[in-house]
UniProtKB/TrEMBL annotation:
Keywords: Methyltransferase, Transferase. InterPro entries: Methyltranfer_dom, SAM-dependent_MTases_sf. Residues 199-305 form the Methyltransferase domain. It comes from the Archaea. It comes from Methanococcus voltae (strain ATCC BAA-1334 / A3). It holds the Pfam family Methyltransf_31. GO terms for biological process: methylation. The keyword Cytoplasm does not apply. GO terms for molecular function: methyltransferase activity. This is Methyltransferase type 12. SUPFAM superfamilies: S-adenosyl-L-methionine-dependent methyltransferases.
Length: 365
């Protein structure tokens, strides 16, 4: 693929901006943009989100190890050097699938070793905590704190995935999600999306997997003449959002309860927002196609996740281990998967990487 950077043609991955220490690595593909030289104000927000995720990675690693310790997994391995099968019968909790997932994640992280010859497990004494040093002043405590809630569900998952204390279901546990969506981390996500898209009065915007908090935030920015359409599979989250809109006298928002993978886009929008939703899509390809089909020519799609797999400075398997307690979670994507999928689908587009967590796509035909 050929890229145009500031008017020059280059191969797709030939260009990596060489920014001074501490600045984001902002790669641009087929994008005429001066932000390579002058960092945009909104990049501070993307950097802030990246730091929070990197810091959390260390916290999760500690928690993950302590949980295995607390529930006796490492002790059994140390004493008996069991195979995975033997270990599962020795750990006295019923959810064997979850315990197996724990062991596989611990192997992948290098905490445990599986011997190739006889498949026995042993502790990896050479394991070292790799410490990442984010800029602590940029950290957002409430993002870290809400993960404490998620990791505390470990003990219930040992009993069964359907344990009543595992309150992460978008449909049943909308009240918990309403709180989880109300963090500084999520606020920064929304304002970063709004700034990158340059959302203004009169815009038409579609928000995919809008949840309960974003509808009021974004529709206030385009009111009264614009149109905000928010779709979400959770009727309860949609109802909460509708109540908020009504209390604030906002009339330019239309909210729909539906699975976005099953929609047929009719309206064309200036912007499509997909924040912290793509990792729940059963078919990311279908999701991406529908989002692109919903855009006008030169319309923009912003995707923000906690991170993209191919750019993040974190242990992806740790996040996936805890996220998998939510049955809707499918997995994090890499930026190249998104770009390659859009190319395969035949769209003409420009793209821009925003830190490790953001991807801006502009549809050009
Ligand atoms: C982590 S929340 C993010 C909410 C919102 N985008 C925000 O940034 O505040 C993920 C949302 O995606 C919704 N969701 C998941 N899968 C979906 C699907 N297939 N179609 C529509 N919404 C979906 C969930 O109900 C949930 O509200």
């Amino acid at each position: 693929m050929i890229l145009l950077i500031n008017g020059e043609i280059m191969d797709r991955f030939d260009y990596t901006s060489d920014l001074e220490d501490g600045k984001m690595n902002t790669e641009v593909g087929y994008y005429n943009d001066i932000s390579i030289i002058e960092e945009e104000e909104y990049m501070k927000k993307f950097r802030c989100m990246d730091y929070a995720v990197e810091y959390l990675n260390n916290e999760l690693l500690g928690t993950f190890f302590r949980q295995g310790l607390k529930f006796g997994i490492y002790k059994i391995i140390d004493l008996h050097m069991p195979t995975k099968e033997n270990l599962l019968s020795m750990v006295e909790y019923p959810n064997k699938d979850f315990i197996l997932k724990y062991v596989n994640t611990a192997i992948s992280l290098g905490l445990i070793r599986e011997n190739y010859d006889d498949n026995t497990l042993e502790l990896n004494n050479e394991f070292k905590y790799s410490s990442i040093h984010p800029k602590y002043q940029d950290l957002m405590d409430d993002y870290i704190a809400q993960y404490d809630f998620r990791t505390s569900l470990f003990q219930y998952a040992l009993i069964g995935y359907n344990h009543p204390e595992i309150l992460l279901n978008f449909k049943k546990d909308a009240d918990i999600w309403d709180m989880l969506l109300n963090t500084e981390f999520m606020d920064i996500t929304r304002s970063a999306a709004s700034e990158v898209l340059e959302i203004k009065k009169g815009d038409y915007i579609l928000d995919v997997g809008c949840g309960s908090r974003s509808p009021l935030y974004f529709s206030s920015k385009i009111a009264p003449n614009g149109q905000y359409t928010g779709v979400d599979i959770s009727k309860k989250l949609i109802t909460m959002a509708e109540n908020r809109l009504e209390r604030n006298g906002i009339e330019c928002a239309k909210l729909k309860t539906l699975d976005f993978g099953e929609t047929i886009p009719k309206t064309k929008y200036d912007s499509v927002i997909c924040t912290h939703t793509l990792s729940y899509a059963k078919s990311p390809r279908l999701f991406l196609r529908k989002m692109m089909d919903s855009l006008k020519k030169n319309g923009k799609l912003i995707i923000i996740e906690e991170f993209f797999k191919d750019s993040a400075n974190v242990n992806v398997e740790l996040f996936e281990f805890y996220q998998s307690l939510n049955k809707y979670f499918i997995g994090y994507l890499s930026r190249s998967e998104v770009i390659d999928t859009l190319e395969l689908l035949g769209y003409g587009f420009k793209y821009k990487f925003l830190g490790n967590c953001g991807l801006l796509i502009e549809k050009i035909n």
